[in-house]
Amino acid sequence: MIIIIILLFSGCISAAEVFKCSTTPITKDTGLTGVLPAGSTSQVKIPAKTNCTYSFEIPKGFALKVETTTDYVVSPGDMVLFDNFFISPPAINEVDYAMNSKVTYQIISVTGNVTFIAKYTYLDLSNYQQVIKPTGTPFNTSLEPNKYFTVKASNANDQVNLQYGTLHDSTNSHSPFEVFLFDGNDIFNSNYIGRVPQAFGRHYEYYSTSDTLTLINLYGGPSDSLFLGNDASVVENMDTYGVYVMDSNSDYNGWMVLKQEIDILPDAWYTVICNGCPSFSIEAMMFDTQCAYSNEKGYVEIQGMTPTQRLPPMLHYQYSTNNNDSFPQLIPSPIATFHLHNASTNFIFRSGAQQKDFVTAPGTSRSVSSPQLWNPDATPAFDYTFSDLSKAYNFSIDLQTIQLENDQDVLSIEVGSVNGLTTLDKKYTKTKLENENISGIGSYLKLKYSGTKTSKVILNFEMIDPLNPAGTTTLPSYITSVPTRATRVSTVSVQSTVVTSKNSQIVVTTTPTVATTTPTVATTTPTVATTTPTVVRTTPLITTTPVTTSTITTRQSPDTTKLMSSTSSNHPTSSPTTVSSMQRFYTNNSFTSRDNNKRMLFFASNQYLHLFPVDTNVMIVTVEV
Ligand SMILES: *[C@@H]1O[C@H](CO)[C@@H](O)[C@H](O)[C@H]1NC(C)=O
Ligand SMILES: *[C@@H]1O[C@H](CO)[C@@H](O)[C@H](O)[C@H]1NC(C)=O
Ligand SMILES: *[C@@H]1O[C@H](CO)[C@@H](O)[C@H](O)[C@H]1NC(C)=O
Ligand SMILES: *[C@@H]1O[C@H](CO)[C@@H](O)[C@H](O)[C@H]1NC(C)=O
Ligand SMILES: *[C@@H]1O[C@H](CO)[C@@H](O)[C@H](O)[C@H]1NC(C)=O
Ligand SMILES: *[C@@H]1O[C@H](CO)[C@@H](O)[C@H](O)[C@H]1NC(C)=O
Ligand SMILES: *[C@@H]1O[C@H](CO)[C@@H](O)[C@H](O)[C@H]1NC(C)=O
Ligand SMILES: *[C@@H]1O[C@H](CO)[C@@H](O)[C@H](O)[C@H]1NC(C)=O
Questions:
Q1: For ligand 2, is residue 45 a contact (CB within 6 Å)?
Q2: What is the pLDDT of residues 495-533, one digit of tens each?
Q3: A Pfam family in this protein (predicted)?
Q4: Phi, psi values for residue 358, rounded to 5°
């Protein structure tokens, strides 16, 4: 009596007497459902020294579903295998599928301690729907229930190269194992190749023999991986190609490297997919200085989307030991392909919402282009502002390629400062330009474009600190403290004289020595054009602290003097000729004098008054401090 109770408690094992291994192939015709061992209703204990292989035949258009419950200890050699993969113990109703024409279910019991039961079902897939995915379009390896996916090359003579990438912060992803791969255009007639990792082998990729391959995932679990099919004709020429996946949750700090077979393969391509992000940015890209192939000829180029779209490179970074000035750089596309030549890099990517506003930074450069050059499906428009309202930069802009083909295409470029002075205000329509340079000083740069797919905008700009244009000195000589010292803005050859009057005003007279100093600004202010070019030489105004020892040439246009004089009555100064409008400026604000459309940008910090003349015309301004 006691013995019987113990048996019942020891795991609901069938009293099923002797285990018999049936080697007769199981087919759909012998029943759409069944149980192993045949006739059992609960787990069966398998005697020691059993090596039993059941075999199934699966007709085209069907899948076999097997639900296993098993318990055993792996180490002594006991195992349960389906489709040659372990079913790890303990398993309770673990579901597996197979689509091979022949598949085995194997039990090896060395110890006599293996117990198992498996229920199987033949699934008819004839009502599954086909989804066509063109090459160059990533998709989730979970696929979708009741659907199968056929990847089709761009051209009927081409083939498909299939790869997948797993989210960078995912520890493991089972889903590729759960996807069955067919070489051909459906699951009914095509050749079954295997589960994806089997089909890939150690090359981590698969080439179809025709222009299509087909995938089905019957498991339907969540996944951390994305498939990407590319046209084989593009990828087969690449020494190395890989797919990286990131999402909007975290930065991606990783490496892109060249591969070594017998020798280093000099070129590698990697497609980065920011899953669920409209764009991403390169926060840093540091070239590996340790490897033998690192040299000044090495570079990284970046093009939009996958290799299949065959887009031209949009960014080029030559090997450098210090290129942080180029970053962060926005990639206005969720997908981009990096090409490494004789270089390896450590990168930091950050996923971005659709970004509009960016910060400025001294001595740095950025590249901006119409988004459809990165992604043909993107809206050909952008609206970016680069700013730090407490700092002024010389935004030096290289219009690399501007091709505005259609009437509705408009590119506007504006540089200005908080309180309203616009030093650069350009609007381009129906224009073709190559490598034209423009610049403006201000605390912000606004770049706005709205165009059509056939048009093209590529521009690069540098944010030059006007106080330190070479990016070297920390205290340029022409910065002087307010209000007692003279100011000389040497970069544009302006001489200034500062006079302090009783009520602590500074009178600043500036004039450029070269009439053509800033021709780019002149075109934006038609009112300036009427200014007489005649140079009137005068002696410096009331001079208490001359700026430089060199000869000061003050050039003054008559209309300037006249207009400024008109506002003089309210603002006593020490010289009748230098009366001008008075402007209050605030710490850390930029503001402007708009007298007679003369342009001068004042930028004030706690200690310094920075004067950046941005016009070729004389101006006299009184500033209250
Ligand atoms: C089990 O039998 C199969 C053939 O039926 C054989 O290939 C395999 O090596 C055997 N395994 C063990 C552990 O004996
Ligand atoms: C089988 O399992 C029993 C009970 O857990 C254990 O005592 C025995 O050592 C196992 N046999 C082998 C060969 O591992
Ligand atoms: C794939 O889809 C599943 C289910 O819809 C989702 O849980 C998972 O996050 C997706 N994975 C990726 C990498 O997008
Ligand atoms: C790239 O590196 C290889 C091997 O070091 C060298 O033979 C080749 O000339 C390099 N290519 C360029 C463009 O520097
Ligand atoms: C460049 O930026 C990265 C990331 O912020 C940083 O780790 C690296 O040290 C910087 N390199 C230099 C030369 O400043
Ligand atoms: C701004 O930078 C450009 C390019 O370096 C230069 O030509 C221009 O003179 C600078 N403008 C001023 C006002 O410094
Ligand atoms: C425009 O500026 C770029 C970068 O500063 C420079 O390389 C190029 O020569 C300039 N182009 C012209 C036409 O001045
Ligand atoms: C002006 O800038 C200085 C230095 O950056 C800062 O310490 C100060 O708080 C700023 N003043 C205002 C009013 O923002």
A1: no
A2: 233 322 222 233 333 333 322 222 222 222 222 222 222
A3: CUB_2
A4: -135, 155
Pocket test for ligand 3, best of 223, 225, 226, 275 (most atoms within 8 A of CB): 223
Which residue lies with its CA nearest to atom 14 of ligand 7? 437
Residues with CB under 6 A from ligand 5: 284, 322, 324, 348
Residues 512/478, Cβ–Cβ less than 8 Å: no
> In this structure, what token pair is assigned to residue 593?
């004098």
pTM: 0.76
Residue type, 27: T
Q: Which atom of ligand 2 is nearest to the CA of 48?
A: 13
Q: What is the CA radius of gyration of the chain?
A: 37
Ligand 5 centroid to Cα of residue 463, in Å, is 19
The whole-number pLDDT of residue 202 equals: 80
Fill in the amino acid letter for 293.
Y
CA 92 to chain centre: 43
pLDDT tens, residue by residue, 532-586:
222 222 222 222 232 322 222 333 333 322 222 222 333 333 222 222 222 323 2
The verdict on the CB of residue 588 being under 6 Å from ligand 8 is yes
**Domains parsed from the chain with CATH numbers:** 19-124 (2.60.120.290), 129-236+588-624 (2.60.120), 237-355+557-587 (2.60.120.290)
